[in-house]
Design a protein that fits this description.
four-stranded antiparallel β-sheet; 293 residues; globular; single chain; mainly beta; Immunoglobulin-like; 2 domains; 3 helices
């Protein structure tokens, strides 16, 4: 009798665990979203869309907005609509300038945002190391030592990109084992960082990288080398916060150890008053093309 009761209880328990979870979520109220990355020496553009409920993959572009840009040197421009929610300005983004944006969309509250564009960074020197270490499979990876100027009296933010030149193709190198203390302090495997711990007016950063392809050198496997250009960006604080939060958001959304229950939700940073999105930018410096031996 006891065994029958136990089996019946087990059947009820298993059945309750298999109850279908409803995916009928309530509609998410549409809110304007701005996405604009201001790049020094490029025309200023703003992309406008509306948020939608879960499951919708097609963005609702905003085509009837009035978008106005003001700068701290007194310039004012009304952007012209192009396509796919993109509004274009006649202004070129300038370093050491502040850009304020106001968006008016019928039926919604006004949206306001602004961004400071940092001073153009300065690359002092670049040293390439053909073999800097070996990965778990025994394939060597390379490194670049980048020396640049910074101001220890002001909190500044940076991003580094190593652009590989493969014929007509340009792609970014992949970050390998992080050993630089400034990058380690950031806590994320990204080439974004602040000068918070830098005490001198210049700093040499070591960046280990791989090109994603390798060849045998007779004694083992070695990363294939290509000509490259280093891009050093001086990014706004808002862009720094956005890039970091975007990485954490993606890690929380697609965790590698989901089987262990380690799922964490992260919100993407936004500096848009009255909406969502990001309005931020950067200036940049490019090195000469470097040809590894």
């Amino acid at each position: 009798m006891c065994s029958k009761v136990f089996v019946l209880g087990l059947v009820i328990l298993v059945s309750s665990c298999r109850k279908l979870v409803s995916d009928d979520f309530p509609d998410f109220p549409s809110v304007p979203a701005i996405n604009s990355v201001l790049i020094a020496d490029s025309l200023l553009t703003v992309n406008l869309s509306l948020t939608d409920k879960i499951g919708e993959n097609i963005l609702q572009w905003v085509e009837n907005a009035q978008v106005t840009i003001k700068t701290n040197d007194g310039l004012v421009d009304t952007l012209v609509y192009a396509e796919n929610g993109t509004y274009k300005s006649r202004l070129f983004v300038q370093p050491m300038n502040t850009y304020s944006c106001q968006v008016k969309i019928p039926g919604y509250n006004d949206i306001n945002c602004k961004s400071d564009i940092p001073e153009t960074p300065k690359i002092i020197s670049i040293l390439h190391i053909n073999e800097s270490g070996f990965d778990e499979e025994g394939t060597s990876y390379s490194a670049v030592k980048i020396k640049f100027r910074t101001n220890p009296e002001a909190l500044q933010y940076y991003q580094i990109g190593i652009k590989l030149l493969r014929g007509e193709d340009v792609e970014f190198a992949q970050l390998e084992k992080i050993v630089d203390p400034i990058l380690l302090n950031e806590g994320v495997p990204l080439l974004i960082f602040s000068n918070e711990l830098i005490e001198e007016e210049s700093y040499t950063m070591t960046v280990n990288y791989t090109t994603g392809s390798a060849h045998s050198n007779g004694n083992g496997w070695q990363t294939s080398l290509y000509p490259f250009v280093v891009e050093l960006r001086a990014i706004s604080s808002d862009y720094y916060m956005f890039l970091k939060s975007l990485y954490l958001y993606e890690k929380g959304r697609y965790p590698s150890d989901v089987g262990n229950g380690a799922v964490t939700n992260f919100n993407i940073y936004s500096n848009i008053a009255g909406g969502y999105g990001i309005f931020a930018g950067y200036s940049y410096a490019l090195s000469d093309t470097i040809y590894p031996n």
